[in-house]
Amino acid sequence: MCGIVGYIGASPAVPYLVGGLEKLEYRGYDSAGIALIDRQGIAVIREKGRIDELKKLLGEEKNESTVGIGHTRWATHGEPCRKNAHPHVSQKGLFALVHNGIIENSEELRQELMAEGYVFSSETDTEVISALAEKYYDGCPVRALMRTAERLVGSYALGVLCRDFPDRILCARKGSPLLLALDERGGLLFSDKVAFEGLREVYRLEDGEFAVLKQDNITFLDAMGRNIDKSPSRLAGDEYDAGKQGYAHFMLKEIDQQPRAFSRTAEAYLQGEDIVFPGFSLSEDQARSLDMIYLVACGSAYNAAAAAQYTLQQIVNLPCRSVIASEFRYTRHYIGKNTLCVFISQSGETADTIAAMELARRQGGRTLSIINVPDSTMAVGSDGVIYTLAGTEIAVATTKAYSAQLAALYLVTAYLGKRRGELSEENYRLFLNHLKGIGAEIKGALALRSRCESLSRIFDGQNDIYFIGRKTDYALAAEGALKMKEISYLHCEAYAAGELKHGTISLIEEGTPVVAVCLRKDILKKTVSNISEVKARGAFVLAVTQERYAPLFSEADEILAIPDLADEELSVPAGAVPLQLLSYYTALRRGCAIDKPRNLAKSVTVE
Q: Could you give the dihedral angle defined by the CA atoms of residues 243, 245, 248 and 254, in that order, rounded to the nearest 10 degrees?
């Protein structure tokens, strides 16, 4: 979840390190720091808080060092403070390093090292790594890092400086992403390609590999110290994602980009009247032999899976379960060669989702990843892959990546439905036509921005907000509640509307806001009845529906009506827009850090 950068070249390193950290701050912003090295030794500057605090500390000082590493932290071990900020330096100043991941046996290693006289200055698991490197140093820093890695249980991406070798940055990876590049600037190290603009190709470090990064070359090594030949991956440009482009926040910009993100993803895999996935295919026999589908994800990706579950079961005629990735690992599943396990992640580096995917593969399931980042861990670790084309997403609270995930899941639905013979040719073409029109439906929902800004007043000053719905509306209510709690810091919960009388309605009192999502005709009367129930207990009800159904919500205090939809089975992408906008404007009213909400980070690469 933390951000790592490194630079070695002919120019001063500080501008590259600070600039890279600013771009990676969405990955963690509890504290930040840099380490610089020259022939006089290693200098470390670090501070609690965001990158701006580090910049103040750096001030106007001119440091001409051309080699350095940097880190922006999301705390896992030890509170956010200067002493726990990275980089961490070994006791004798031999090594400085930055780390993304969690060392699970850090406490045992700490006790061992303390018994040998080592004095620790932080509460982090990371400092254990620098201490071990110093312990094993025999004049060869690579050998010391390899011996250290042998002792570590858990995950790590490491950028390491050694005082005795100021012409290089050492790198190691297990379970956390780490990328390297060479260009006219010099050697570059980073945990996400957004750290450095203009990259044309990158090298991906794989689990158990090491690298020595210099100004004009990279040496890759396996765990035995043997050289590895590695080819770079080319990066596609993302022409419409540079900066905020006049928006106050990345989140609002990314909400507005959803029509394009959805349509780009949907249309990328349409060839005439057929769906073609370059990274995934099933024959008709293979599709017909499927006996179960699992959709596994975390956070908003899980909410996308929960929505798609209803549509998949309806159209593909197969049992389908959406499962939270962290729970999937600890539950018995009946997975065999005819089980399709679909794993969804924006980054492709979500730790719990990767672990669930590895479990499914060990049990013999067919694995498919839906991800937004090429060459990520999930992309190379699953049997098949479908890339969403959302572009780079910066705001921690996902919007356009969520929409693109829905596009991919709808494509998979139509693909399987046709190959299994569950969709007639006529219904298949109709489904695809409706899919092509969803970008326009999302655009129509975006026209409600000023209305959402006005309605956000309902939530300011509240302690609790409840979202209710049925079927896909319930999955949409869950995403609306998540967005609101993520960025406004208000307590929000989503409930299946039919469960109200089974306990939840006891929470309703005079003035309690209830957002009732009802975009579907087949459950409309039931949800209207639920509105009556909460109104009788004093709730303030905001109904989210389609324009054609608005007259039926006379008991609601306010109605937010999106333009009418062509296919209510595909209502979630357009229906999500007003919920996102309500969350955005509520957070704005409350003065919250919208793009970088407290305690959250964009890419959850640790368990």
A: -70
Q: Is the dihedral of CA 500, 502, 507, 511 positive or negative?
A: positive
The string of pLDDT tens digits covering residues 90-106 is 999 999 999 988 899 99
| Strand 156-162 versus strand 169-174 pairing type | antiparallel
- Number of alpha helices (DSSP H) and beta strands (DSSP E) in the chain: 18, 27
Contact 181, 188 (CB under 8 A): yes
**Is cis: bond before 563, omega within 30 of 0?**
no
Look up tokens 């800004």; give the residue. Answer: 453
DSSP 457: G
Closest CA to 370 of 235, 441, 277: 277
**What mean pLDDT is predicted for residues 248-259?**
96
Closest by CA position to 541, among listed 520, 557, 553, 561: 557
Question: How many Cβ atoms from other residues are within 10 Å of residue 228's Cβ?
Answer: 13
pLDDT of residue 239: 45
- Condensed to tens digits (0 to 9), the pLDDT of residues 6-34 reads 999 999 999 999 899 888 876 666 888 99
Question: Which helix or strand (DSSP H or E) is residue 242 part of?
Answer: none
Cα–Cα dist 106/87, whole Å: 17
How many C-beta neighbours within 10 Å does residue 373 have? 22
Sequence-distant (6+) residues with CB within 8 A of 216 are: 182, 186, 187
Q: Which residues are tagged catalytic? A: 2, 602
Distance CA 599, CA 576 (A): 24
